[in-house]
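User: Predict the structure for this protein chain, please.
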Amino acid sequence: MVAENNGLKPLDPLGQPFNPELHQAMSLVDAPQAKPNDVVAVMQKGYVLNDRLLRPALVAIAKPPKFLKRVRLGIDLTTPIFTPSAAVAAQ
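Assistant: Here is the predicted structure, written as structure tokens:
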């Protein structure tokens, strides 16, 4: 292919760890068979031209276990798990 001979390479990251420099996360999905933050679906391939990103791959990633646990327990996800002020108050 002419494009590949000139340095154009497609990004198809299915099964790879999420890399924010090459991928754009479009959604988090329940995927118990996958490692947390692994790409489980590719909605659109990305492209690199001569080691420069032209278009990031649009992907869905597996939810981390803590995220899943907090959702199942009904915990407000806008509240951080750890807050520096709570650590200072505990001292």
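The first helix runs from residue 2 to 5.
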